[in-house]
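fwd from M.: "can u put these together and see what the complex looks like"

so here's what she sent:
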Amino acid sequence: MSGVSFQNVQKSFGPVSVLRDVSLDIADGEFLTLLGPSGCGKSTLLRILAGLEAQDSGSVSIGGRGVDGVRPKRRDIAMVFQSYALYPHMTVAQNMALPLRMRRLSPWQRLPVFGRLLPGTKRAGGEIAAEVERTAKALGIGHLLERKPGQLSGGQRQRVAVGRAMVRHPAVFLMDEPLSNLDAKLRVQMRTEIKELHKRLGVTFIYVTHDQAEAMTLSDRVAVMLDGELLQVAPPQEIYADPSERRVAEFIGSPKINMLDGVVRERGLIDVAGSTLAVDIDRDQGAEVTLGIRPEAFHVADRSGPGALTGAVRFVEHMGSDLFVHLDMPGVAEPVIARLLAERAPQISAGQTLHLGVRPNRALAFTREGARIRPRVQWTPAAGATVTHLREYVQ
Amino acid sequence: MSAGHRLAPPAAIARHTLLLLTGALVMVPFVWMVSLSLKPPGEIFRTSFSLLPEEWHAIENYTKALTEVPLPRYMLNGVIISAAILVLQILVCAPAAYALAKLDFRGRDALFGLVLIGLLIPHQVLALPLFILGYNLDILNTYAALIFPFVVSPFGIFLFRQFFKSIPDDVVHAARLDGLSELAIVWKIMVPMAMPAVIAFSIFSVVSHWNDLFWPLIAVRSESLMPPPLGIMAFKNEEAGNDYGPLMAASTLVVLPLIVVFLAAQKWFVEGLGKGSVK
Ligand SMILES: Nc1ncnc2c1ncn2[C@@H]1O[C@H](COP(=O)(O)OP(=O)(O)OP(=O)(O)O)[C@@H](O)[C@H]1O
Ligand SMILES: [Mg+2]
């Protein structure tokens, strides 16, 4: 059992509050992603879990055992660092062997020359070398063992860093933006490899990223973090389709979700952008709300009228299978972006007037302060539709 | 080293002339010293200038230098003292610098301030207090007296600290997770990564203590403890006269090991700088 649990963890550096009251439970064997913009405190949270930094208040436990004040090496945690943090003066083999040597050999046995003469050193050393080689082969870096990190490419260094973390079979695996230094193609490839690694090892993974696509494809659950606060922790589809508040909705998804201010006309109907949409929320007439509509929730409608929004096309971006249509709508300050399937959309050109329908249940309602207003009928993941959209968007 | 871009001939000539002139200026005293060490007494004070002697007197001069005073003994002392100082300095400076660069504790900045102050105080200022301290500890006229005042080097601490600071925190974090103790981090990670700084410091330390005259003059009396420069001085006083040939021969012999060591280390040095660390 090695789930991880944060209870009310707080941390500030001087006057800057970096983590505010973070509570999070992660199940044994789960793949959890911490997703948030740069500087929101993701790495700090990992460092606290690893024992490399002390929290100001709150507690952390691993496998049900409180680890506050426990030294990093006793926490049975391995970490792949954002910068890889390989030891430049050691070969790949030495880099990967170090955690094992530190654990399996006595201080005397680790001495440079003398250690080799002690009983057992040779056997233990041989075992370590064999394990390092096995791990390196599994990661496809078996031929690089005698090189120094300076002689490797970014992707190879990343694998070495993973290998160094993997060899000692930790109970919890922390990865801090391991793919951020790689090119787009390699990133996609490594993503798959990490997913497979998780399946193979079956241990708890906590993965940090500011790349939504990584978060969406890899995780069992995503924890969205902003300014040191956990906004929502949920499976990827849910984060995407049922955000708990406006900030989450705006952070997830690209292009960004459209936010349209509207007023409740009567129960279940909202006046927005010169038209009226049916949104099943429990708010009375006159209530001010904001509707969040994802670009891909639009479809082309043949005429204006209730249930459809009308706008003037500003310009069209062709993205292969999709079109991104930017429209001006009455009473909406920012252009609205609609993502339409190229084959379904007729010829669209700038200046034209376009009517857009919104798929049922895809308009998300928020208060003006940004809290979510849930529909009266409880949301259930309409699995098919949502997941297809996720896939599309993640590609 | 890459060849770099080629300069236009006039610029290249100007640059090389300047470099050669500066180089020559620095070299003159050494060349002169070697030249004198080859000449018989009569030629040394001659008004006419010549680099090579008319009559070679090298064997006589060098034999005299090696036999009339225990020059090998002085050199051995120099090796013992310089090596002991260097080893102890690194043993003290590296952990201290690590603490100042990578550990967070109350009063760290104040301590670093003290190191900076230590950097500003010339050693000569401390000679008298150190002499009295040595007297009270009853270590005057021993190797300890020659070694002990230099063991804590503010310059070494400062240099290492600056270098350690440039090593990313993540490397230290990784080492802690890998199970290294703080001291193991110093010796297995920080010092090897800071090799260029260690070598630069070693050259600086060995050269200055091999050549040191001021403190040995105060700290030791007995000839068997004298480091080379002090030995040579004793030589000069005893032999006196205008017999500079053997004196110059002794001086040449004394600086020779430094030059050899430096040339050997230089190769390393350039290599260490070239490789750099990995992000
Ligand atoms: N040792 C420190 N001293 C002072 N401030 C720090 C320290 N470490 C982190 N911070 C601050 O804490 C905040 C969160 O840092 P953290 O490294 O956790 O961000 P992050 O979410 O990992 O960002 P990124 O995606 O860029 O890696 C930042 O504003 C940073 O400036
Ligand atoms: Mg980070």
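replying to her w this: Chain B touches chain A through 21 residues (CB under 8 Å).
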